[in-house]
Amino acid sequence: MKILLHICCGPCATYPFEVLQGEGHEVDGYFYNPNIHPYSEYLRRREAVEKLAAAIPGKVIFSPRYDFPEFFRRAAFRESLRCRLCYDQRLKQSALVAREGKYDAFTTTLLISKRQEHELAREAGEAAAAGAGVKFLYRDFRPGWKRHWELTADHNLYKQQYCGCLYSEYERFMDPIHSSPGRR
Q1: How far apart are the C-alpha atoms of 67 and 112, rounded to whole Å?
Q2: Of 24, 68, 75, 165, which has the fewest Cβ atoms less than 10 A away?
Q3: How distant is the alpha carbon of residue 50 from its chain centre?
C-alpha cells in the first residue's frame, strides 16, 4: 500500500517507518503539529524530522502552516479535552493530505507512545478517515517502544521532554500529584 504516516516527532517516526517499509509498503511522512509550543521547540522537532527524512526511503511532506492559534482556540477552557482536540485537528488534516495525495491509507506515530492516549488517537484517526473518505490504518506500534529509542540514538535525533503543547510542558514541571498522568 501507499501509506501517509502522520509524524508527531522524529523519534516516534523511526519505528513505524521501519515496520511499514519492512512490510513492503511505500511510506511517506507528513509533519503537521500546531500543538507544539513554543515555536523554537516546533523548529527543533521539525529539524529532527528533516534529519530522519534524509536517512530513510520515502519523502516527508512538511505542512507550510503552523496553526498554533487554532489549537489554542480549540483547547482554551477545555483543557481536559485537549488531547482529543489535538488529535482531531492533526489527524483530520493528515486524512485530507492522504486523500489529496491518493494514498491508500494513513496512520500516525502517536500510536507508538506509551504516554499518549492510545484509544483517543485511534478514534480520532478513524473519525478523520470517515470524514475524508480515506482508510485509517490502525497499528499498535507500542511493542516497538524500546526499538524506537535505539533507532533514535542511531540517527542521533533530538529527544523532547514533553508531548508538545504548552499544557504538557507546564505539567512536566508540576508536582506529579497535581498533574495529569502521562502526557509527555
Answers
A1: 24
A2: 24
A3: 14
Neighbours of 57 (CB within 10 A): 10
- Domain locations in the chain? 2-173
pTM recorded for the entire structure: 0.92
How long a stretch of residues is the chain?
A: 184
Greatest Cα pair distance in the chain: 46
Question: Which pairs with CB-CB distance under 8 Å and at least 24 residues apart come from 169-174?
Answer: 169/37, 169/41
pLDDT given at position 174: 79
The rounded distance, in Å, linking the Cα atoms of 157 and 12 is 10
Q: Which helix (H) or strand (E) holds 90?
A: helix 82-100
Is 2-173 a domain of CATH 3.40.50.620? yes
Residue 98 confidence (pLDDT): 98
Q: Work out the burial of residue 126: count CB atoms within 10 Å of its CB; fewer than 13 is exposed, 13-18 middle, 19 or more buried.
A: middle
Q: pLDDT digits over 28-76, tens only? A: 999 999 999 999 999 999 999 999 999 999 899 999 999 889 998 998 8
Which backbone phi and psi does 160 adopt, to 5 degrees? -75, 165
Count CA atoms closer than 13 A to 141's CA, side-chain side.
28
The answer to whether residue 183 scores a pLDDT higher than 70 is: no
